[in-house]
Amino acid sequence: MHIDQSILNRANEWMTPTFDSQTQQEIERMITSAPKELEDSFYKNLEFGTGGMRGIMGVGTNRINKYTLGKNTQGLANYLKKCFPNKPLKTVIAYDCRHNSDTLAKTVADVFSANGIKVYLFSELRPTPELSFAVKHLHCQVGIVLTASHNPPEYNGYKVYWQDGGQIVPPQDGEIIKEIESLRYEEINFEANKELITYIDAEIDTAFINSTIENASFSTPKEAKENLKIVYTSLHGTSIKSIPAVLTKAGYTNLNIVAAQEIPDGNFPTVKSPNPEEPEALTMALELAKKIDADIVVGTDPDSDRLGVAVKDLSGKHILLNGNQTMVVMTAFLLEQWKRAGKITGKEFIGSTIVSTPMMLELAEAYGVECKVGLTGFKWIAKMIKDFPNQKFIGGGEESFGFMVGDAVRDKDAVGATLLVCEIAAQAKANGKSLYEELLNLYLDFGLYKEHLISITKKGMDGANEIKQMMIDLRENPLKVINGQRVICIEDYQQSTARDLINNETFELDIPKSNVLIYYLENGSKICARPSGTEPKIKFYISVQTDLLSLKELTEKEEELGHKIQCIISEMKLN
């Protein structure tokens, strides 16, 4: 295979004395025997996406390694000094269970300390939400977590949090990227100042656990907590450091942990993917739940920001809820608790995203609060809290199994969400009901909603071009009818415009630009197309809905909505 000269030029830069001998040997191997691998490793710089920087570990500009992360950190250190001139600077760093996360975290700590910045480094792996909490708790200007969330074992990543505890957002992310891109690799200072690195653990853990209990507990009787039979799995990830301690301290004594998945392990040996969005990931937990007749099953992803939940249906069988379902159940519960406590004054809000269920808007209207809707990614919900200090944030979520209770943590938080969902299940059981019945009651009140996600993977440079072309086609040749229903509106977040196709009018969208398209059909269906910001995928989010007048209609109506979704998939050639 012929290697493009621009790829060779990039690779040869990494053959200089700035880079260690092991790196140089790996590049030589790729040049001589793996040119395709060389191309994928160097054809671009790894970019910040919706969840920070995430990629395959290895040598090259398009890989996670000590040099790409070192450059990030040096650029960020330079940026901090510009933002906070003549001020003492502090950062906190956490990492997950992935291969090299601990050594990469130490590299990041070394570079910050080499630049005169005080570093708090967790002595062992910790959940991402604890890092978000620690940024504010320790009064740091910035926080970093080394994680690739639920990606496969060969991935790692780098998330940046600002002093409010939320992830960086525009224009700040662009300013930081400019600072990073202006650097040469030889400008990275790897020479650590050990006196500026402090290891942290138990004291922050205790503060985080207490804060979680304070935010996500709602006067559930002691007996109800003890009576709830919980199955929990950390899927070999970091939540084992927090969730058992939180549940136990909150009074949940009947906690059954999936032992085979309890030990943190970056190989994730018992699952194809450590992603609670995938039903297969919770197979072991569901088997244990069936064996002991558990009331609820909870599984979290490796960095403990997402959770999957299974509950008993009306026949007593354990079924998995999707992220939209857990989100509306948790939000409705929070709203009801706030209402009963007399805390709803009209200055409160809940948060959601443009690809999540429209049912969140219905809930907000019913309780007299605002539902703010942002782009995909919890950094936008965190930004809402920062941008509207005169409004009180109750809670919020997104369809991809993330939820946040209150504002002590400014990112999706599976630790707090796990406690909240147990509170809901315990109170429901004490009242002779189940969490599933709570969901059905919401459907009776607000209509039956069904959502479906199609995720199409296109790897490498060719795949990236295919995804780009798919979005171009959807923009330049928009569909006018889907499944016999007219398209009545198209929202294009890249152009910041919404087109009303019935009245032939165009409106501006007051949301930051993003490569997202949403089609609205005349029967209330919604189809969203969005390339992933962290994976080589394009995602299609489909939402359909109908009235539900009685639970006797449930099976028939669910099948009707399922058929609608399949027709949309078939007509748009997404299968």
TrEMBL record:
It is an enzyme of class 5 (isomerase). Its cofactor is Mg(2+). PROSITE patterns: PGM_PMM (PS00710). InterPro entries: A-D-PHexomutase_a/b/a-I, A-D-PHexomutase_a/b/a-I/II/III, A-D-PHexomutase_a/b/a-II, A-D-PHexomutase_a/b/a-III, A-D-PHexomutase_C_sf, A-D-PHexomutase_CS, Alpha-D-phosphohexomutase_SF. Its EC number is 5.4.2.-. GO terms for molecular function: isomerase activity. Keywords: Isomerase, Magnesium, Metal-binding, Phosphoprotein. Residues 47-183, 209-310, 322-442 form the Alpha-D-phosphohexomutase alpha/beta/alpha domain. The keyword Transferase does not apply. It holds the Pfam family PGM_PMM_II. It comes from the Bacteria. Belongs to the phosphohexose mutase family. This is Phospho-sugar mutase. It comes from Flavobacterium nakdongensis.
